[in-house]
Inverse folding.
């Protein structure tokens, strides 16, 4: 049985994890769980980030998204400096509880990405069969 | 500079990674990149999974989603047994190229989750402030 990461209980059986009502998030070897943030208004996927147990607990307690910044190695209250606070409308867990889906309302200017864009997925992967190579092109929207 | 994972080039500078047109996916220490699959029709988030470089290359070449199954430790052609093939409509990379967003059309019965449901996010995290504990409840939709 995987170890618990306080304050969350350790995962139970596969059946319990997949069909039960116990919230037993499965953090990875680095103590992180992947989180997809989508705009609660139109469902647009805004970003992918990670939480550790502390960030998840704080998110639940405050109703605002807290993440773990892997690049900075610190707890990250999203929007604390930019104003782009993500107020939690709903959090869902996936079947094996190793991913979370956050429906959020974004504060400030409504943006999300640190590049200034509304979301982080602003480039399309264009694959060229002839060369077998892929390039990126900036998306129109 | 992070090592390249063949057949993809290694990431360049931060500016190149964030604003450039070179596709330089950043695989993690386990050689994986997180992938969000959404239904190309209505934008619903279906699942979160991972690809290694081989799975990503095969996805680009075939136009169908291939993942790396962390639980089974093997390449995973999504839908090969269930019929729930994910045909790629579009792939996007995020700002720092460590996450992918796949817009897919799902074959077979249109489902995605191995539990038989359309998507993997069928339970809502319900936080109880009084006890400080969270439970799951099955979502209506």
């Amino acid at each position: 049985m995987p170890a618990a990461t306080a304050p969350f209980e350790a995962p139970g059986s596969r059946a319990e994890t997949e069909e039960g009502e116990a919230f037993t998030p499965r953090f990875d070897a680095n103590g992180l769980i992947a989180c997809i943030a989508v705009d609660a208004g139109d469902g647009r996927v805004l970003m992918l980030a990670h939480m550790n147990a502390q960030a998840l607990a704080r998110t639940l307690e405050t109703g605002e998204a807290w993440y773990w910044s892997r690049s900075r190695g610190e707890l990250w209250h999203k929007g604390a400096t930019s104003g782009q606070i993500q107020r939690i409308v709903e959090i869902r867990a996936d079947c094996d509880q190793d991913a979370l889906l956050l429906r959020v309302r974004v504060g400030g200017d409504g943006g999300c990405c640190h590049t200034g864009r509304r979301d982080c997925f602003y480039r399309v992967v264009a694959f060229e069969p002839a060369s077998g190579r892929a390039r990126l092109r900036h998306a129109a929207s």
Remarks:
- The helical segments of chain A are 14-19, 53-62.
- The CA atoms of residues 45 and 92 of chain A lie 14 Å apart.
- Chain A touches chain B through 49 residues (CB under 8 Å).
- The radius of gyration of chain A is 17 Å.
